[in-house]
Amino acid sequence: MISFELTDEQKAMQAMVRKFVKNEIIPAAEEYDRKSEMPWPIIEKAFEIGLWNFNLPAKYGGLELDHVTEAILVEEIAYGCLGISGAWDGNSLSLTPILLAGTEEQKDRWLPQFGQKPLLGAFCLTEPSAGSDAAGMLTRAEKDGDDYILNGTKCFITHGGIAAMYTVFAKTDRSKGTRGISAFLVPGDAPGLSMGKVEDKLGDRASHIAEVIFENVRVPARDLLGKEGEGFKIAMQTLDHTRMSIGAAAVGVARRALEESIEYAKTRVQFGKPIAQHQAISFMLADMATKVEAARALVWKAAAELDAGNVGSKLGAMCKLFAGDIAMEVAIDAVQIHGGYGYMKDYPVEKLMRDAKILQIYEGTQQIQRMVIAGNIL
Ligand code: COS
């Protein structure tokens, strides 16, 4: 049986997050976007009321959400502000490798701190010369007694330089390609780890994105995640889990653009009637609404499959591809419906359009998603 009916618990959590978004995120989003600042007070408040740590296991103080519930809540947060929702996504991305590949000892040592304080994690895969070709990374981890010494630069890292824990991918054997990459857990205060350039972005400006530089960072062997050489697979499996939630965030952005457009079109009068009564506009709104529903259905299907244990690359990539594209399209149409006002900062749709663009780029470009999907179906 297929059901799109939310459970009572999901409805209650959705209502709680909606209230939080309405009271805390929407009123502050414009300022965080303008100043390009990390939304610390919002994160602290979310932690206080138990809305932080979506995927942290309950035994460490997290919500341990199933993926469908995660999709529902991420949509709500991104409805308020995509950049602010990046704080949640950045944490999920950095915690997923340890949840997938960490030993119980590693989990017990690293994860409780996230339940005790509103801390950030960072996932360090991308490098200046290794974006889509993640395996082309230059960061190396060389064995030195019982330790590894990490050297290299990671870029475009969410929470880079301000995280308490870094999941770092580095080459332990350059001759082995993807099988020569290993994953490490590194504390934020590790000597030799520093923040490089902080990015000044087109959109998604409330999320902190920076370079992370590793200069002779010493990592004990007990913080190797999985076995030596398993890092690339851990990174790919992580993305198989997290791309669904980027799709959910995209649905949130698209839904906000749609709702702003409906409100505007009902009140903006041209040629003697609200523009919503002109077919040119009402058909645009009909297409936008259809796209939002279709994207959400795909995201929920991908989330349900993850919850059922059917983890693969295809559906997550499809979610990210389809929902990311429709968010961009719907946001562009929202600006068009608002006309000249839509281009001005007085209305939220110009921010939605700037924000939406990143959904087609991060966690793998749309072109990479197509490669992943094609690889799965052929
Ligand atoms: N799960 C498990 N293993 C996987 C996997 C997955 N989802 N995807 C690939 N692998 C394995 C392959 O099976 C292969 O294993 P073997 O060595 O045993 O044969 C190995 O990893 C290498 O796979 P592949 O040859 O496909 O690797 P490529 O270098 O061609 O890269 C893509 C594949 C393009 C998919 C990968 O580099 C990628 O996802 N790039 C985008 C990275 C990204 O999203 N960056 C955003 C930053 S993170 S916010």
Short description:
By secondary structure, the protein is an alpha+beta fold.
What does this structure look like?
- The chain has 378 residues and is an alpha+beta fold.
- It has three domains: 8-116, Orthogonal Bundle (Butyryl-Coa Dehydrogenase, subunit A, domain 1); 121-229, Butyryl-CoA Dehydrogenase, subunit A, domain 2 (Beta Barrel); 233-377, Butyryl-CoA Dehydrogenase, subunit A, domain 3, CATH 1.20.140.
- Helix content is 53%, strand content 16%.
- It contains eleven helices and ten strands.
- The protein has helices at 8-35, 40-48, 67-80, 82-101, 104-110, 112-116, 231-267, 279-307, 314-343, 349-359, 366-377; strands at 121-124, 140-144, 147-158, 165-171, 181-187, 193-198, 209-220, 224-225, 269-270, 273-274.
- Helix 4 packs antiparallel against helix 7 (231-267), helix 7 runs antiparallel to helix 8 and helix 7 (231-267) runs parallel beside helix 9 (314-343).
- Coenzyme a persulfide binds at residues 123, 125-126, 132-135, 178-179, 232-233, 236-237, 239-240, 313, 362-364, 368, 371-372.
Task: Give keywords.
10 strands, 3 domains, Butyryl-Coa Dehydrogenase, subunit A, domain 1, alpha+beta, binds coenzyme a persulfide, Butyryl-CoA Dehydrogenase, subunit A, domain 3, 53% helix, 378 residues
